[in-house]
Amino acid sequence: MSQYATISTRSGAGELPPELDPDGEGLIYGCNVSDYWDQLEAAAKELGIPSLRTFYYQDPEFFRELGKQPPVQKEWHTPEDGLKTVAALLEFLRRPDQPRVCAIFGDDFPDENQKWVIWDLTAYEAILKTAVQQSDPFRIEIC
């Protein structure tokens, strides 16, 4: 079962921008990012930026239902901070410096998978740019 790491904003925004689904197919972003969550965290560490996990939020009730103590987590984040992380990850993945990308993501990554992780991050970037304009705090949720 696929998981999706999507952006939610306090105002409820976070939908895929129409320009990323020009044929109206009902595409959903975030699956590719969640498939490479650990590798994106390693890339963020190498780049010296906060990882996407910094912005992750899980409803505390989820942990209580599992009989666990919820972790301390920040519920909302400034969209500017998220946009800086996403922009840096996009720049890294789009760079022709493939040995660094392959070292983190694996040799088969640059083929098809890189394109889709970039697509997800491009969706994040568009959503976060709107959130910045609207001063709308955000978080990343896994569903």
Which descriptors would you attach to this protein?
single chain, 143 residues, mainly alpha, two-stranded antiparallel ribbon, 6 helices, 48% helix
Structure report:
This protein is mainly alpha-helical. Helices cover 48% and strands 7% of the residues. It has one domain. A two-stranded antiparallel ribbon has the order 1-2. It is globular and about 40 Å long.
Q: Helices and strands in order, then pairings?
A:
Blueprint: E1 5-9, H1 31-35, H2 37-47, H3 60-65, H4 79-94, H5 98-105, H6 112-133, E2 138-142
Antiparallel strand pairs: 1-2
Helix pairs in contact: 2-4, 4-6
Radius of gyration: 15 Å
First-residue to last-residue Cα separation: 11 Å
Report the oligomer. single chain
Q: How would you state the average pLDDT, rounded? A: 90
Query: How does the major sheet shape up?
Result: 2 strands, antiparallel
SSE pattern, N- to C-terminal? EHHHHHHE
- Helix segment tally: 6
Share in β-strands:
5-15%
β-strand number: 2
Number of domains: 1
Helix content bin: 40-55%
Any idea what the shape is? globular
Low-confidence stretches: none
User: Strand order of the main beta sheet, please?
Assistant: 1-2
- Structural class, by secondary structure, is mainly alpha
Short summary:
With 143 residues, the chain is mainly alpha-helical. It has helices at 31-35, 37-47, 60-65, 79-94, 98-105, 112-133; strands spanning 5-9, 138-142.
